[in-house]
Amino acid sequence: MNTHADIQIGHSACPHDCPSTCALDVEVKDGRIGRVHGARDNSYTAGVICAKVARYAERIHHPDRLLKPLVRAGAKGEGAWKEASWEAALDHVAEAFLKAEQAHGSEAVWPYQYAGTMGLVQRDSIHRLRHAKRYSGFFGTICTNPAWTGWMMGAGKLAGPDPREMAKADCVVIWGTNAVATQVNVMTHAIKARKERGARIVVVDVYDNATMKQADLGIVVKPGTDGALACAVMHVLFRDGFADRAYLERYTDDPRGLEAHLATRTPEWASAICGVPVPEIEALARLVGETKRTFFRLGYGFTRNRNGAANMHAVLSIAAVTGCWQYEGGGAFHSNSGIFGLDKSLIEGHALADPAIRSLDQSQIGRVLTGDPAALHGGPPVAAMLIQNTNPANVAPEQRLVKQGFLREDLFTCVHEQFMTDTAKLADVVLPATMFLEHDDIYRGGGHQHIILGPKLVDALGEARPNLFVIEELAKRLGVADRPGFGLSAREHLDWMLGRRGLGTFDSFREERWADVQPDFETSHFIHGFGHPDGRFRFRPDWQNTPSPDRPPESMGIQGDYARLSEFPDHVELIELADARHPFRLATSPARTFLNSSFTETPGSLKREGRPELMLHPEDAESLGLAEGDRVEIGNHRGEVVLHAKFFDGVRRGVVIAEGIWPNSAHERGEGINVLTGADAVAPYGGAAFHDTKVWVKAAG
């Protein structure tokens, strides 16, 4: 730490599920944190962080933090608890796991985790216990699958141009991410390009959000129709001579086939599908065609549809048609997750893994816990769970099924958490968890190129303990503590991993704070070829065989209605189309001061967000006889939810937006927005379609 007067400045990284993974400077005084700042000397963070993390003292010192182990003392979900010692609580958990294993086999235990922390040690050590005990596998599907799959189909490697090159672009296209709310550093570099180079900023999204208000050109599309818009843009690029034919011949697989395919994908055709007026489509195509240094920053939001992988592939293809990859400040970027090269084999216990053990789909937890044979993949019922870093009773789709499953009397659930979340309320044992400033870990930023150390800066409050502690203590009680990878501290794991990467040790890396591992220009821009064996960008993807980080285990097979995916980029009509019964399409977009189900407890975030609301076009509201602020009920065959109407003309007719994942208790019936979302898998490699939901809307009774 550096010291200024009586305040020490510690260095860390934001642990939350965000591509920015900001490098942080943290004020520490008398064992408490104060203001949190973005590190000015980190070239991507550049001194800028979101307001919610700047106020992190609200969260870490919150009076409602869990500080002692709790054991259920009444009926499930009733809210009656009694305090227990860590020893007694862990003994109880281990006993329940062994009982489930004896009754149904080892696959009856399902360790369940996700991205509540992105620290590699504290997030991923649960897999080592899973493999050592032969517990059910975990196929993570709630976030990246459609986006990464679509990218890999085209580019063949999960990497791209240095995202700091946005500042060197003449046009920045921010497609499918509300960066002001979710990736503030994207705006740092885009705005720099505007100020220093006169760059144009284009934003494509399903509503006129905070990012679009910063744009020179804002394009509002209907959810799930980005592929149609992309095809029309490419149609114009070929039609008007903006396609870089020399680049296409050298670097892509079938440019002539693509051009022929796009002959009928006119702006008029696309406008009828996506709702964007023809002149706006023409203007977008002309701008990116005329501007060689165009940087396409592609987000996750537009892929959270049942055709999400196809949408990503189609939009990514625009950069190949223009050839903008050739220029500094040009190309397309989604995630740098493929560049970091950190070896997690010891943390995750790869040597202990048995591919014969079944895997279960994270997003289908409701179906799994209610005994759906297809979701269980022919295996036994899930009888015991350990949950870390996630809140499925709130964030998973088909929420009614999820809650029904957790309320089973024959299911034992242990939740390791920081607050009494919706999931913790349904548990049998709740263990208090540390926050990122209270333990050691390391982070990597998918939205940039830095590996960042996050050392412990303050002591844990109460009896909170890190994830690694829980895994180690359960391993002792479950008889696997002698297996490879167990018995090591977080720092010992970090020493091993850093050493394998050639980055020294925990102590030496603490002095460095981070490492910039961005590949050189030619590698980042695929100048020597794309990631497929032939080095060519694929306009004609192999939807069933292309390698991808999110490819499902072989035992699960290809997902969704993959047979309907198209040979070339296209609008693939796999989405939940509005119909007479459900005339509206719902997108559950992120709120600016929440992050998934985190920060929903902090006073600053709650004050800003107000209450759960439904944003709908004033003309739609008028047709329904609704007034501003009215209670509205929205629903479909999965259930119904009550919100308050908020009139908003920055959305297409027939589209409604519900921002933020509010706690279920924030809704008047105790059920949240994910009652309405479906868990059917996105083709071809799985995923959850959170922005692809047909609903009816009416005044609440």
UniProtKB/TrEMBL annotation:
Listed InterPro entries: Asp_de-COase-like_dom_sf (IPR009010), MoPterin_dinucl-bd_dom (IPR006657), Mopterin_OxRdtase (IPR006656), Mopterin_OxRdtase_4Fe-4S_dom (IPR006963), Prok_Mopterin_Oxidored (IPR050612), YoaE_C (IPR037920)
PANTHER family on file: OXIDOREDUCTASE YYAE-RELATED (PTHR43742:SF6), TRIMETHYLAMINE-N-OXIDE REDUCTASE (PTHR43742)
CDD domains: MopB_3, MopB_CT_3
Domain 4Fe-4S Mo/W bis-MGD-type residue range list: 7-64
Top-level taxon of origin: Bacteria
Family label: Belongs to the prokaryotic molybdopterin-containing oxidoreductase family.
Keywords in alphabetical order: Iron, Iron-sulfur, Metal-binding
Protein's recorded name: Molybdopterin oxidoreductase
GO molecular function: iron-sulfur cluster binding; metal ion binding; molybdopterin cofactor binding; oxidoreductase activity
